[in-house]
Amino acid sequence: MRLSLDEVRHVARLGRLAMTDQQCEAMRDQLDSILAHFEALQELDTDDVEPTSHSLDMANVYRDDEPAPSFDRDRILANAPKRDDECFRVPLIMEED
Length: 97
Prior knowledge:
Mean pLDDT: 89
Strand order of the largest sheet: 1-2
Structural class: mainly alpha
Helix content: 25-40%
CATH architecture of the domain at 5-42: Orthogonal Bundle
Number of strands: 2
Order of helices and strands: HHHEE
CATH topology of the domain at 5-42: Histone, subunit A
Low-confidence stretches: none
CATH class of the domain at 5-42: Mainly Alpha
Largest sheet: 2 strands, antiparallel
């Protein structure tokens, strides 16, 4: 199924993309190729395939949460351009009400 240029322009407009006619033509070829791959996938028999989030079996590996010494605060703060007692001082990025 070949996409029309109007369909490509519509998709570009949805993505807020300004495209020339030449870019639309190139994008049409690329989108047609992508859709052809999806059409090939639609032909696969997946009736006996269970839905999964990964193609391989995966398991989370957790470690015990054990307290451990941290970095020396004064040594870390020594590199801070500005500091406020025991904290980094950073520029205000949001107005307070």
